[in-house]
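Structure ticket #2291
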Amino acid sequence: MKSKFKAMVLAVAITMFTAPAFAAEEVKIGVPSWTGAQAIANLLAAVVEMRIGGKAELVPGNNATIFQAMDQGKGDIDVHPDVWLPNQESFTKKYVDGAGTVTLSSNPYEGNQGFCVSKNFGEANSITDIADLGRPEVAALMDSDGNGRGEMWIGAPGWASANVNEVKVRDYGLLDFIEPIRAEESVKTARVKDSIAKDEGYAFYCYKPHAIWFMFDVKMLSEPPYDPEKYVMLQPSDSPDWYEQSMVASKDALKNVQIAWSNSLADRSPAIVEFFERFALTADDVSGFAFEVSGKGREARDVAVEWVNNNPDRVDAWLGL
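Resolution: structure written out below.
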């Protein structure tokens, strides 16, 4: 009897030490500050956890830190959920085209960006074009601190688009009338709401997809049509003199927006990478996510889980099922 028991213990021990170990696939997803990116990051995480059975961690960061971490390939951050091109082209040229350490998905959605005012403010003051913000009487209506220039939100700190917009304000000849302001997007949203409630003037960088189109009655101003000869933009990562060396005097081209991931992830979590390769959203999808989060105040995680449960066919397609 004792010999049989010893044999059983020995067999279990051998199995424990010789059987292959199947660790759950893991991914760390970067989370930039804008709402659309936060929504997509949570959706990616929900699919990884709910359908792949892996582990997903959300890691806050700006464009530079996320791309640098993906380039290093150590697993500190593996994914950027919302890469806007050509806004972030300096990063993709460096890490996708140059170093070859990062991969871009091949299923982008379309983005558009410009400058907005509330519909009431625009109609009351005949504001239809970006040049109208340089009219002294319009700028005065947007001057809340009495410094002689109207404030305009151009983006959050760390956004490549904020750098573009800072150059645009200069090259559209607006600097004598408009003060470009950088602040977190939540500050902008609160200011838009307050300005509409108080019937005050305010202008701000806006883009589609975004919750703003569901939340408030706003309009995008016209700009000179996109002209590549008038759109030469360098980012701080390109040159310390990026502001002086850049020239942007036309509207941005329509954007391709997609996800990116570290090439090192394929060795560590191949099933997750296969999911990323098939992942695709529409601009309406992202606007809807953003509205649920920004407009209704819901947790991005809850919105993502609900979407995964309600759209099994689309998720199946992403997983190749």
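Closing remark: The chain is about 45% helix and 20% strand.
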